[in-house]
Design a protein that fits this description.
Radius of gyration: 18 Å
Largest sheet: 6 strands, mixed
Order of helices and strands: EEHHHEEHEEEEHH
Low-confidence stretches: none
Number of strands: 8
Mean pLDDT: 84
Number of helices: 6
Shape: globular
Length: 211
């Protein structure tokens, strides 16, 4: 009879990929994101949005715990419902790549790639946590309102903002996909934290109340 062993002290080998791009420059005024007041227990979309905003609120504190995150698979592979996409270059074009984005992936991206940060007019740098693709002109048709691509970033006050930048989101998504490829997925039997449990484990703050 085969016995399955489980352990809590499994580390993830740190990988330092080369930086591809410099910092992104903000090219327009930043707009503040509207936050969600609460999330119903069984509303999956609301809960994903609540966790996204929870991550934005605690991101800087979580980044300070990066060594603990890399030292524990349960923390590293904590899933994150962030609006980020992966892209890989195929010849002269880019192809979409699926991302099972985790807390460890975003920490590794922020620490390894300068393009994961937006530099504002005052020279301050802010971490990117989302992409918003704008409208595209197709077959000669131009929409009445053409919206540019933008990124979502975390302000110094722990709140989300969006702005247009001077780099292609496809290039940014390519760098993020490269990070995700550096770290193999854990075995199916491995347990991971939910984000609210990871925050409680790392920071000692209980942020989740059952509704």
């Amino acid at each position: 009879m085969r016995t399955t062993l489980f352990t809590k002290d499994v580390s993830v080998e740190r990988v330092t990929p080369p930086a591809l791009l410099g910092n992104c420059k903000a090219v327009d005024k930043s707009e503040r994101e509207v936050r969600t007041e609460l999330a119903q227990e069984f509303d999956g979309e609301q809960k994903r949005k609540w966790r996204r905003e929870l991550f934005v609120q605690y991101a800087h504190h979580l980044l300070e715990c990066s060594e603990k995150i890399f030292a524990d698979e349960r923390l590293f592979f904590t899933p994150l419902p962030l609006p980020l996409s992966g892209w890989a270059k195929n010849g002269v074009s880019y192809e979409s790549r699926p991302l099972d984005l985790t807390l460890g992936h975003i920490v590794a991206w922020w620490q390894s790639y300068k393009c994961s940060q937006v530099e504002d007019a005052e020279g301050r740098r802010h971490y990117i946590y989302g992409f918003t693709f704008g409208t595209q002109c197709k077959f000669g048709y131009k929409p009445n309102e053409v919206k540019p691509d933008r990124v979502l970033f975390i302000g110094t006050n722990g709140q989300g903002y969006r702005t247009e930048i001077d780099k292609s989101l496809l290039l940014l998504g390519s760098s993020l996909y490269e990070v995700c490829c550096q770290y193999p997925k854990p075995p199916l039997c491995s347990a991971t934290f939910d984000l609210e449990d990871a925050i409680e484990h790392l920071l000692g703050e209980r942020v989740y109340q059952r509704l």
